[in-house]
Amino acid sequence: xxxxNLLRRTFLGAGxxxxxxxxxxxxxxxxxxxxxxxxxxxxxxxxxxxRPQRGLMMFLAPWGDNGWVRVGGINGIDDPGIQRTEYHFxxxxxxxxxVFGSDPRHTRYKKIDDFTLESxxxxxxxxxxxxxxxITEFSEDCTRINWISTIxxxxxxxxxxxxxxxxxxxxxxxxxxxxxxxxxxKLNRQASTLMxxxxxxxxxxxxPWGDNGWxxxxxxxxxxxxxxxxxxxxxRAERRPERNMYWATWDGTPAFNxxxxxxxxxxxxxxxxxxxxxxxxxxxxxxxxxxxxxxxxNDGKRVTExxxxxxxxxxxxxxxxxxxxxIVPAEWPGxxxxxx
Length: 340
Known about the structure:
Structural class: mainly beta
Distance between the termini: 27 Å
CATH superfamily of the largest domain: Calycin beta-barrel core domain
Number of domains: 2
CATH architecture of the largest domain: Beta Barrel
Low-confidence stretches: 1-28
Mean pLDDT: 82
Radius of gyration: 20 Å
CATH topology of the largest domain: Lipocalin
Number of strands: 20
């Protein structure tokens, strides 16, 4: 029996959600470039929950050559963007990394084979949940994720009960797209000129979407990488970050920006490193929105987003300049810990 099938039997037992697996027989090929990355939506027909309904969407972007940035806890495009949003960036070598956003903790991932990862959550202040773990399996055609979790908490104390989430990819990933755009970026407030809200710590995640677009997710406030680097510990009060997100092609096709500031958005690529954006607030009485640019540095270490227009509060602003530094594995070495 292959290692992969052994993992599947261990977590699920014989005959459980066989239709959801959609995996090939032993002898799988190497992971296709970009297989993991993109926008994923939950498949309700194949999902079997033991915990509340949340996390209907998941976004995965590359992080280095052996890891990802993951944004989760998003309940679809109608989510108002002030609810649960969490994110992390990890390498797949069993090192421990912090989780940011609405549910701060630590996590670790280990790649088992070309399409399978093991992970676990670490909560120093919740030892009763030390056994929480997951298996993430990707189909070999890169269109489906099976996320199978053991979750021990006040709603479940049976380690044999599994929470099973099945996600389908919204749009295929094209490996030809430059990875210079994709990953996580931390707001450099010293280098920025903030003229609109929010003005808190902020992280932007760019996720590949098709071969000519991205998902753009902005997460402000709550527990952020800036706090972690500054030695601050998360508190229970920091549980509701603000979030905006859209996914759009770079040809000016209108898309929807959802979250705390809903709007129609267009993105146009006008150079290898330069994009122009326009936001129109169809839900506000003043109608006017914002125009701006997104410019990546040639070395891929910095992105600058400049906007002018009418803010979500109806106040006009000019030249809001947000400079983001790329979060890279070399500057965020994971912590080596013995298994719990």
